[in-house]
Amino acid sequence: MRRLVPLVTLAALAVAGAPAAQARLRGAQTCAGAYVHPTAATVAAAQSAALCLVNAERRSRGLRALQSNARLIAAAGDHSRDMVRRRYFEHGAFVGRILAHGYAGGRLVWALGENLAWGSGDLGIPVAVVDAWMQSPGHRANILNAGFREGGVGVASGVPIGGAGRLGGATYTTT
Question: Could you report the per-residue pLDDT of 93-110, keeping only the tens digit for each?
């Protein structure tokens, strides 16, 4: 009998912090799109930048970079868009959602982690979100988990709250 052995770690936050703190983030000047404000036209750039910034943090600590995985990108993007559309902010059925996108197919042992964040204005740009994750022990642990080999970032234009703040920001999921 085959047995799947999942290791799951989760962390979520709404970005709140000073943009000046972004200067301490590794890769901030070398990752294209690190300062882009995510819109429908720039979501792909923001996603690439966020993964680049995560990988810069990993490499600076002697860890291998995460390889981009299309299934994880799809799962992360769908979740970010769903949170904005339905106005909620939570992991939900995280493992099932990722497995439904075909991740882990045939693997006997796998590990999953997920970070969530949203921010508006300058707090919604990739460098601010990854910096906030690195300042949070749970998020940082996910990013620096040496067991993770693949990753995907999904960014949605908009934030998962009602009212005027709903536009002009971005919601991020990284798996």
Answer: 888 888 888 787 777 777
For the four alpha carbons of 155, 161, 162 and 164, in that order, the dihedral sign comes to negative
pLDDT on residue 2:
37
In this structure, how many other beta carbons lie within 10 angstroms of the beta carbon of residue 55? 21
Q: Is residue 4 within 8 Å of residue 110, measured between CB atoms? A: yes
Residues forming a β-bridge with 111: 7
What are the φ/ψ torsions at residue 8 (nearest 5 degrees)?
A: -125, 130
CA-closest candidate to residue 169, choices 37, 24, 22, 30: 37
Can you tell me the distance from the alpha carbon of 105 to that of 159, in angstroms, rounded to the nearest whole number? 32
Q: Measured between alpha carbons, how far is residue 159 from residues 11, 77, 105, 120, 163 in Å?
A: 17, 13, 32, 7, 10
- Separation CA 112–CA 102 (nearest Å): 13
Tokens, residue 6: 């999942």
Q: Which of 145, 154, 173 is nearest to 8 (CA)?
A: 145
Tokens matching residue 73 = 């990108």
Q: Provide DSSP, 64-103.
A: PPPEE-HHHHHHHHHHHHHHHHHT-----SHHHHHHHTTT
